Write a sequence for this structure.
């Protein structure tokens, strides 16, 4: 009996224990709770597009204007070679996933034969008034597997009723045409520009509207979502929709970038640029910029198409900072994209492909300081399994944690990429990257937010391990993906592109070495030193400056260059190289690899910071080679300049 009793007790105990452990484990490995607002399915789908095109085409194309007044003659619109398939082909080859077309810009001219106005392609000579650019664009997008979006300017400088309630009906009628007749539309773009003056059916006057009430956006949004349930709506500033403007058209978003805003209230530049950490709504940023200075085609800009280093910066400062990139092509009067723009976009695609060709993280062993419930579904190696739906997560109370990737041998890399599993919210507030180099941990980069995707650039290192330290997070971190890459340095022809890396307002008190380095990085040192050269007489850098050329045979953007932080160029004239490195608001020590040198030895003259004084001569060495690196230390707002003269072949 006793024995039977204890047997029963044993079995019951076992069952209880089993139940308890099941309950305990399932409590531990519960999916992390949402951390603040989260994206909708439409926003998630949009975010994953990452890169898509803007196309600016209208009567402005024929008048060399930026904004039409609204009285331009429809007869001007007669592109002789219009081919939307060319646009789509270029976008596809450039790695873009969609195209947003300006179907009506501020001048009011419509690229489709709207039945609500005479100011459209139907009264233009093009295709005898039977043409429809939106239809041709929709067909080309379909053929090339691209999504289609529309830009419909709310401001209409042609329409007689603009500023009155009747215009809102007109605007919604046009939206209904566009969102009904051209298949799925992934994004609609409502430009906030409103200059007031215009033709307005002949009135030629200034019409002011109250932007907070006139457009009655909430009802327009309702209509849009009824017609296209999968769409995302872009609207700037105060009229909160699905996506936000980033406060600049220069091609970058804040380094700290939360995908959150508050649903109401003003949105000053800082909020557009950085989002709001504790915002109550998910409103991610889209970086819109043009491949040339302006949005519409101007022949004078054929030589001003952005260079590869410039576009690369744009890429890292948009897609690499938790935003998408909307890159504009202006269409020429003949109806095609200019060959210089095509080349620039394809060169960028090639450079991006090369930079991210091999994910070195895939071949590593991943371990984490904490794994949620010690469970497989939250384990560290989920970040390297190439499945975007699996993740590494920590226990609820852990907001500081690290994940180590072991390469097993010294491995060369200079890029780090991380993605949060944003379905559960955006969490990470601060992180660093370290490399185990010759047995010592060394900090390689430091950053704030991650979001959907964050890419960091730093000088090339050879490390056996990489450590991703999350130092602060809003809730337990949930990381879906990590990438480590060795991007090639970008070789360019002589360029006058100087990353305007530093906010001039902040650049008070920069050091002499910073000034010297600018002389190297700008096309002509005279730009900087006219009238000031006497300041450098007797300076240890005088000799170097005297020999600075004003034209160059080759320019390399040094890896690790990042707008706002540190920007370095190496420039060659004949057998001599000059390196200029400029520093932002924080001190930095940077190894500069000399791998761009050919065979032979070089004498190096290195000048760096001695704050408040002329730059200090730091080192002269007669025997550096391509396999060496030179380490420079820079003060906040500092710099360094290096001259390399060939000594032995
Ligand atoms: C601006 C407009 O005024 C420009 O012409 C251009 O369309 C750009 C995308 O948005 O606000």
């Amino acid at each position: 009996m006793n024995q039977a009793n204890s047997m029963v007790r044993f079995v019951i105990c076992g069952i209880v224990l089993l139940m308890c452990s099941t309950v305990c484990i399932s409590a531990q490995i519960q999916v992390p709770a949402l951390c603040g607002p989260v994206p909708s399915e439409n926003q998630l789908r949009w975010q994953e597009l990452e890169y898509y095109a803007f196309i600016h085409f209208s009567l402005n194309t024929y008048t060399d204007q930026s904004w039409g007044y609204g009285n331009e003659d429809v007869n001007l619109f007669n592109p002789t070679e219009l081919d939307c398939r060319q646009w789509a082909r270029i976008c596809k080859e450039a790695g873009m996933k969609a195209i947003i077309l300006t179907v009506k810009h501020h001048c009011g001219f419509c690229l489709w034969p709207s039945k609500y106005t005479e100011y459209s392609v139907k009264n233009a000579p093009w295709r005898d008034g039977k043409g429809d650019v939106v239809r041709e664009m929709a067909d080309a997008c379909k053929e090339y597997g691209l999504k289609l979006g529309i830009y419909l300017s709310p401001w209409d400088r042609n329409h007689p009723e603009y500023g009155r309630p009747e215009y809102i009906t007109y605007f919604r009628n046009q939206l209904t045409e566009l969102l009904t007749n051209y298949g799925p539309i992934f994004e609609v773009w409502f430009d906030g520009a409103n200059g007031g003056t215009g033709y307005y059916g002949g009135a030629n006057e200034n019409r002011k509207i109250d932007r907070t009430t006139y457009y009655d956006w909430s009802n327009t949004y309702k209509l849009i979502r009824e017609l296209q349930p999968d769409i995302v709506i872009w609207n700037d500033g105060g009229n909160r929709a699905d996506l936000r403007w980033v406060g600049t058209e220069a091609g970058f978003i804040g380094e700290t970038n939360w995908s959150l805003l508050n649903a109401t209230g003003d949105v000053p530049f800082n909020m557009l640029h950085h989002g709001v950490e504790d915002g109550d709504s998910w409103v991610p940023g889209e970086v819109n910029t043009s491949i040339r200075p302006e949005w519409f085609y101007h022949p004078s800009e054929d030589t001003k198409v952005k260079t590869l280093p410039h576009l690369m910066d744009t890429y890292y400062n948009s897609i690499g900072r938790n935003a998408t990139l909307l890159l504009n092509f202006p269409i020429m009067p003949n109806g095609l994209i200019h060959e210089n723009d095509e080349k620039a976009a394809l060169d960028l695609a090639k450079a991006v492909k090369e930079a991210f060709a091999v994910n070195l993280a895939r071949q590593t062993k991943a371990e984490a300081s904490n794994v949620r419930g010690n469970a497989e579904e939250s384990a560290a190696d989920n970040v390297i399994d190439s499945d975007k739906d699996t993740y590494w997560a920590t226990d609820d109370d852990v907001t500081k944690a690290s994940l180590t990737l072991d390469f097993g041998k010294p491995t060369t890399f200079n890029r780090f990429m991380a993605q949060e599993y944003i379905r559960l919210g955006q969490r990470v507030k601060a992180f660093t990257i370290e490399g185990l180099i010759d047995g010592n941990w060394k900090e390689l980069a430091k950053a704030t937010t991650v979001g959907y995707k964050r890419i960091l650039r730093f000088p090339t290192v050879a490390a056996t391990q990489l450590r991703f330290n999350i130092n602060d997070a809003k809730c337990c971190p949930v990381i879906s993906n990590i990438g480590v890459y060795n991007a090639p340095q970008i070789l360019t022809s002589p360029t006058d592109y100087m990353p305007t890396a530093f906010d001039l307002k902040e650049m008070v008190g920069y050091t002499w070495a910073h000034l010297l380095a600018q002389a190297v990085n700008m096309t002509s040192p005279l730009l900087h030193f006219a009238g000031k050269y006497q300041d450098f007489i007797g300076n240890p850098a005088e000799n170097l400056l005297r020999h600075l050329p004003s034209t160059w045979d080759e320019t390399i953007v040094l890896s690790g260059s990042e707008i706002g932080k540190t920007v370095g160029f190496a420039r060659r004239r004949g057998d001599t190289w000059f390196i200029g490195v400029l520093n932002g608001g924080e001190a930095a020590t940077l190894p500069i690899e000399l791998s761009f040198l050919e065979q032979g030895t070089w004498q190096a003259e290195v000048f760096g910071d001695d704050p408040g004084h002329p730059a200090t001569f730091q080192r002269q060495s007669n025997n550096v080679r391509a396999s060496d690196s030179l380490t420079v230390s820079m003060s906040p707002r500092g710099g360094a300049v290096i001259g390399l003269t060939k000594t032995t072949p």
Observations:
- Confidence is low (pLDDT under 50) at residues 10-27, 493-506, 523-532.
